[in-house]
Amino acid sequence: MTTDTHRIAAATSGTRIATGLFALVLGAFFVWGAGFAHSAALHDTAHDVRHAFGFPCH
Amino acid sequence: MLVRYLLAALAAGLFVGILMTPVHYLKLVPLIEHAEIYERGGHGSAPTHEHRASLVSSADAHGLSGHEAGRVVLVHGPAAAEGEEGGASPFESRALGTLTANLVTGAGFALILGAVALLAGHRITLRTGALWGLAGFAAISLAPALGLPPELPAMPVADLAMRQTWWITTVALTAAGLYCLVLKRQPVVRAGGALLLVVPHLFAAPHPADLSSPIPPTLAAEFAVASLATGALFWVLLGLSLGAAMDRFVGTEA
């Protein structure tokens, strides 16, 4: 009984960390694309937003 | 539960991205467009240069008339043809590009903030959302702005990769410092957190040797303040939306 509870707790904590890391990487990917990538198409689309957020630009 | 957590964060970010676009157009894009007149004025052909210089010679000309604003957009397009990066956007209109970038940035920062809370084992709620948002503002807007103030086009800048490195390092150290300072209890860890907040500012941000700029200082100052104020609004709205979305779509656990 107790071991079961512990196992479940450990599993949920594992998924929690996995979800957290996944969200972190996905979010960083989005922000990188909008704010940092050196591609001309991305730069021009996000130009005003990059300046607005104070991301290093140009 | 955790899929709903991700979707809630995504929804909150997209919502704030939509909300911020008109704010950008109210406070920031007019200043950027105004700066681009000076940017073009620097290396435009002689006749248009003179013409444009006369258009913006009045000190507070950034209440751009429709005619003038239209001219600026036209000027931005051909810039690409002349080798200056520009005009490569897949979007027809500049506003659509800004909306898209705001959606992506909002979703990205919402996911990051949600991920940090999840990994730290804390729930963002409507009650605590504004505080989480302010922490994000401190780490991602305020701290890097101390070394690299929000800049307008045509302002003198150092190498892009160096500035990006300094920016990312500062954000990471500030976020880690805030985590130790706010969410930890042990005095030693808290002191370490306070130290982490200071460390990036002991190393000077990359600045160009020559600071002369075609952009009037008042315009630059106005933009820096508007950018930080808009950033604060973005982060508080993001924290609140994230909290509301978590309250609404994710149960009491997760």
Automatic annotation (TrEMBL), chain A:
Transmembrane segments: 21-41
Entry superkingdom: Bacteria
Keyword Transmembrane helix: yes
Keywords on record: Membrane, Transmembrane, Transmembrane helix
InterPro entries: CbtB_put
UniProt-recorded name of the protein: CbtB-domain containing protein
TrEMBL record, chain B:
Entry-linked InterPro entries: CbtA_put
Keyword Transmembrane: yes
Alphabetized UniProt keyword annotations: Membrane, Transmembrane, Transmembrane helix
Recorded superkingdom: Bacteria
Bilayer-spanning residue ranges: 99-121, 128-146, 166-183, 188-207, 219-240
Record flagged with keyword Transmembrane: yes
Protein name per its UniProtKB record: CbtA family protein
